[in-house]
Amino acid sequence: MLRELNISERSFPLVAPFRIARGVKYAADVVTVELHQAGRTGRGESVPYARYGESMASVLDEIESLRAELAAGMGRDELQLRLPPGAARNALDAAMWDLDSQLSSVPVWVQLGRPPRATLRSAITLSIDTPARMGEAAARIADAGLIKIKVDADDPAARIEAVRQAAPRAHLIVDPNESWTIEILRDLQPLLERAGVELLEQPLPADADEALLGFHSRIPICADEACHVTADLPRLRGRYQAVNIKLDKTGGLTEAWRLLRAARADGFKIMVGCMVCSSLGITPALEIAREAEFIDLDGPLWLQHDYADGVSLHDGFLLPPAPAFWGG
Question: Which sites bind Mg(2+) (predicted)?
Answer without folding.
Answer: 175, 201, 224
